[in-house]
Write a structure and sequence with these properties.
Bound molecules: flavin mononucleotide
Largest sheet: 5 strands, parallel
Structural class: alpha/beta
Low-confidence stretches: none
Strand content: 5-15%
CATH class of the largest domain: Alpha Beta
Helix content: 40-55%
CATH superfamily of the largest domain: Aldolase class I
CATH topology of the largest domain: TIM Barrel
CATH architecture of the largest domain: Alpha-Beta Barrel
Order of helices and strands: EHHEHEHEHEHHHHH
Number of domains: 2
Oligomer: single chain
Number of strands: 5
Strand order of the largest sheet: 1-2-3-4-5
């Protein structure tokens, strides 16, 4: 944490909720929910090592036999975490079934630091409902943002005014795909970026008129220029 602290970010978040076997089998991610003492040691030493806020994300528990989100949150608070984010599923559930928001409410009741609720927010109304039902201080969106970065402005406006802004126009979607492709290229190189854009393209264009043919044609695209040409030809 100390090595990366000067980077362009506001806080250091430790992911103690990751369910991936490679991570869990190594005792990391959500496996740390089974070893609360070790999790505590990691957090306290991180908090001591850096000035930026250290935060932690975890799940409802590891499995049905280990449902310890409340205890874990209290440990995080006493270790100096600035806030916690809770995903209302166990590791065993992975991403299946529905997220249990009741556990988010219990965590919120148990600690004084801010609690971010996470799990199954796909529309602005879901965010409002989660905040209302759990009392959480903020929400975290994951899958609901795939191909839909507009969900953030929709949530914000809905919470502030009770109204949801109009869905993005085709032109706005097109510009966002290009911007996404450009930024991803800067980050990962054009080649990898264009391959990764295949999935994003499918998410961005879900339900649109030309989405099936676009999904097919994106597979041939290898450059940003090609991506722009494809969008020019199909969507406007
Ligand atoms: C493909 C995928 C990758 C994820 N990667 C991360 C990650 O790197 N770090 C993290 O904290 N959570 C990660 N998550 C978990 C999400 O942040 C979130 O907790 C989970 O998807 C539940 O929220 P949702 O219902 O809004 O998707 C990932 C989820 C998915 C589906």
């Amino acid at each position: 944490a100390a090595q990366i602290e000067d980077g362009p970010f506001a806080a250091i978040d430790v992911n103690m909720g990751c369910p991936v076997p490679k991570i869990v089998n190594n005792g990391e991610g959500s496996a740390l929910m089974k070893d609360i003492k070790l999790a505590e040691k990691i957090l306290t030493s991180m908090v001591k090592a850096v000035k930026k806020p250290v935060t932690v994300k975890f799940r409802k528990g590891f499995n049905d036999q280990c449902l310890n989100a409340v205890e874990f949150a209290k440990m995080a608070e006493s270790s100096g975490a600035a806030w916690v984010a809770v995903h209302g599923r166990t590791r065993e559930q992975y991403y299946s079934g529905t997220a249990d928001w009741e556990v988010i409410r219990q965590v919120k009741e148990a600690v004084k630091i801010p609690v971010i609720g996470n799990g199954d927010i796909f529309h602005a109304q879901d965010a409002a409902r989660m905040m209302q039902e759990t009392g959480c201080d903020g929400v975290m969106v994951a899958r609901g943002a795939k191909g839909n970065p507009w969900i953030f402005r929709e949530i914000r406006q809905y919470l502030e005014t009770g109204e949801i802004p109009p869905r993005p126009s085709t032109e706005e979607i097109r510009e966002m795909i290009l911007r996404h492709g450009r930024m991803l290229s800067e980050y990962k190189g054009e080649n990898v970026a264009m391959r990764e854009m295949r999935s994003h393209m499918a998410w961005y264009t879900k339900g649109m008129k030309h989405s099936a043919s676009l999904r097919c044609e994106i597979n041939q695209v290898e450059t940003l220029e090609g991506l722009a040409a494809l969008l020019d030809g199909c969507m406007v």
